[in-house]
Amino acid sequence: MAPDGWRYYAEEIALGRENHFAGHGEEPGRWVGRGAEALALSGPVGPEEMSRLFGQGRHPETGEALGRPFGGDSADAKCKEGQGGVDQVAGYALSFSPPKSVSVLWALADEAVTVGVHAAQDAAVNAALEFLQDHAGFTRRGRGGLVQADTDGYVAAAFTHRTSRAGDPQLHTHVLLSAKIRASSDGHWLALDGRELFEVQKAAGLIYKAGLRAELSARLGVAWGEVGADGAAEVAGVPVGLVENFSTRRAQVEARAAQLIGAKEAMLGRSLGGGDGPPCSSWPPTGPGRPSRKVARRPKRCGPGGAGRPPRP
Fold it and tell me: Cis ω on the peptide bond leading into residue 284 (within 30° of 0)?
């Protein structure tokens, strides 16, 4: 996400325009991450706070510069190093969305179950973020960024929404990670190492899904169907027809994908994919959003634990 990209998220996420229950409102965003806790951030997350953090590289409440600030959050900012242009990375956008049957349960059950599902969603997202901060919460230092260093953790904002763009029940959480991250060794504000975030995104998605199942089973006694290859499972007892009825957005995406694939196959005179692997409409795999992988060489690791990368799960 470039420094001027925060406006999209402010309009579509923080202000709730993504929601199709017009006038019903969304709960305010919340600060998450160890870095946010270290800064003692509290209160709602709105456009003003997002502009400071993601658009300017400053403390979202005080306006104090977090290291070298961005040149500005204007869409017309010149694309120069240190001038807040589109080549700079201000943050990363992640999305955590449960299987449709979970959203159906949340939307149609009584208040006690609805509250329990929402709490389980928050807990599962927090578990995934804890994993990400342990395995992808680093910065780079040294010439060419070859040394990887520990940090205080993410400064991030989470927004939980209730519907899909098609207006169907779809509980989901957007998490915006600031690229500003504080080195543990000396307190300097540097840049988040996006390469590690890319490397562990699938594992984080699996942890979120497993955590959600565990939370719902513990809180509400939910039983589950078979876990699929993508790590997801549907709630046992929720009718398939009900799930399909509230999957308008998926049907739209699959219909459009079929049109595009058909047109490409007609142009090439052959079938695409040969039936192996997931359908084109399901790619990329589910899980947190995919950040940029713009790093030339793998960094070395420094800080507690010695050399080498942190262990993979």
Answer: yes
Q: Which of 180, 206, 200, 228 is nearest to 290 (CA)?
A: 200
Q: Compute how many other C-beta atoms are within 10 angstroms of the C-beta atom of residue 110.
A: 7
**Torsion angles phi and psi, residue 192, rounded to 5:** -65, 135
How far is C-alpha 159 from the chain's CA centre? 10
User: Under a CB-based contact definition with an 8 Å cutoff, are residues 283 and 132 in contact?
Assistant: no
pLDDT, tens digit, 9 for 90 and up, residues 180-198: 999 999 999 999 999 999 9
pTM of the model: 0.75
pLDDT digits (tens, 9 = 90+) for 164-180: 766 678 899 999 999 99
Give me 104's structure tokens: 């159906």
What does the alpha-carbon distance between residue 99 and residue 259 come to, in Å, rounded to a whole number?
25
For residues 192 and 209, give the distance between their C-alpha atoms in angstroms, rounded to a whole number.
25
The answer to whether residues 155 and 35 touch, using CB atoms and an 8 Å cutoff, is yes
What is the rounded CA–CA span in Å between residue 297 and residue 295?
Answer: 6
Give dist(CA 223, CA 11) in Å, integer.
37
Rounded to an integer, what distance in angstroms lies between the CA atom of residue 137 and that of residue 196? 8
Closest alpha carbon to 295 in 193, 182, 197, 203:
193
